[in-house]
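Researcher: Go.
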Amino acid sequence: MLILQQCKKDGNFCVVATGKNIYSIYGLIKRQIPNKYWDSKIRQYVISPYYYFQFIKLINEFFPTELIISNIDLERKIADLLGKEYKLLCIQEEGLTPEEDNILILPETLSENAQLPSFQQSGVKFLLNVGKGIEGDVVGLGKTVISLTAAVKLIEDKSYSYCLIICPATLKRKWQNEINKFYPSLASQIIEGNKTERKKQWGMINKYFFSIVNYELLLRDKKEILNKVNNKSEKKILICDEVQYCKNHGAKRTRITKKIAKNFNRVFCLSASYMENSLLDLHSIMQITNPKILGLNKFNFINRYIELDYFGGIKAYKNVEEVREKVKPYIIRRNKEQVFEQLPDKVEIDYYVDLTNRQKKFYEDIYNHITEMIIDMEKARRIRMADVLAQINYLKQACLSTELLDATINESAKLKELYNVMESLDKESKVVIFCFYKKMVEIICKKINEKGYEAVYMHGSSGKVGDRQKTIDEFNSNNGKKVLVTSDALRTGVDLTSANVLINFDLLYNPRAMEQRAGRIDRMGQKNSKITIMNIIANNTIEETIKERLEDKEHLWQIITGGNEEDRTEKLTLNNIKNLLKI
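Model: Structure:
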């Protein structure tokens, strides 16, 4: 039996153990509960209320039959002591606060087709209550819609003026697409363009529910941003996506993000990897999120929690449990196992990237050439669709890598984003990467192997059939390679059911062909109940048009592909090509 009592002198609680497990229980407390002490006068362990939940969990885990008795309403006393922190811990543990039930009234502007499972609603309630905190769920659990919904609730219910979203450049379009998907009636803008255009957009920030900007632009528009957000009469919300971009204390973008965050009443930081390398990462991010929790002074933090070697490198950590307990109420993190039953069987995520300058040059040159070809064909009244198709093929390659068009130039915005996507995945994930072009398949495999991933590639020209099956069997085995890069040679008739992630490095015109790609992992015999499909799409290119058509279920493939060359030419019209290229 365990009796928990409130200590009158310091607000801690005492543990009185009786029965045969007394020494085992005291030993467990001694080994695993931080910041406790043995009071020799009353012969009891005294524990901080901050470790109440940890203590109860330990007892329930190791001594499930042990009766726990409080001679007072100890939880209520602890709630009074911890206040807001107790409330936040309750939301994390149970999805509700002590004073309310588990119902969240969703915004009226939420799309009729949208549904938020209960774990996402708990995430919304956490952000609404925390004020300034980290949404740290693993990839694929919907941090975007959780933070959007919390922001909309505040703007609709609490007279907040607007929400500024800071994110990597590759995610700007994704954020606007998610806003349009879940809250189509709410206005949003992406801040971009030249200096004059951006200055005008910053001036209009309070006219939009959401304004989206990438980290790199913060430095260029520092003056405009700080002048605008410094208005104390407005209540404002800041969302920092992939906040690990600000893990380096000394980085310029970290410093400007901290200055901006100080002017916002609510700060929601999103990241599945908010501590990538060291405790200093977490300290830097908490300075943006909620500076009071770990303090503003980096050197005081180091003195308290880090041991440095002679050269100033990190030798060891100390008082780590203290850091954990300090930040715990301000970070919510769930993994897929915790919310497994609520997850859809298949999640699809789009990543948008801006082409590099050299890629843009290649793309624009080819695009202009196609435009000139079409003008000449119209004048001559002779349409050579085979020639146009060849140029469109080059246009698609320019979206992937300059190396496909010029072996001496190696630039690819998609490859950079692929590295980011791969780093965000669980270490145990098995990944299939599809790309139409054989040469690009080989380039992808080579590059990600250089990054330390165990990858193999396969396309229609890679070895004999028996060798290819051996590679597939090796990939599907438990001890096999983690990444398989393949062309559409494996789009049909192959089971890759050990994989739980599929990445489309490019898009096909044919919706059914895209379904066939997904069908390699989304089929009977799948060893993972939940799968993720990711599409990497080049902004302001033909790929955006293809994505739009795929989403609208317009079978563009009937126009562009199918049948023999003669049939394909007959199906094409000039208007089809113009619509595809938005000429």
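Model: The chain has 24 helices and 20 strands.
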